[in-house]
Write a structure and sequence with these properties.
24% of the residues lie in helices and 10% in strands. It is α+β, with helices and mostly antiparallel strands. It has one domain (2-81). The strands form 2 sheets. It has a two-stranded antiparallel sheet with strand order 1-2. A two-stranded antiparallel ribbon has the order 3-4.
Length: 82
């Protein structure tokens, strides 16, 4: 999350003078050196930094993923590989 920035790195302001906020990091469809310079903290958040709605969404996602079977690998015939 954070203010939207233009190609020169300047914060983009709305007509009322407030910065536009983005809830995602802008990623291009190809990787270049700049992508590797972005710290992982740009993509991760502590639970205390999330809004109540984001915490609720995250908890639903955790419950959904927890329902998946614990199957890491299968062979070509669908047999579990330990």
């Amino acid at each position: 999350r954070g203010p939207r920035k233009d190609v020169d790195g300047n914060v983009v302001m709305s007509p009322d003078g407030m910065p536009f906020e983005d809830d995602f990091a802008f990623l291009q469809f190809y990787w270049n050196e700049e992508h590797y310079e972005i710290p992982s903290s740009e993509f991760t958040y502590k639970r205390t930094e999330l809004t109540a709605e984001e915490v609720e969404d995250y908890d639903r996602l955790v419950a959904f993923v927890a329902a998946f079977p614990a199957n890491l690998l299968e062979d070509s015939e669908g047999n579990h590989i330990l």
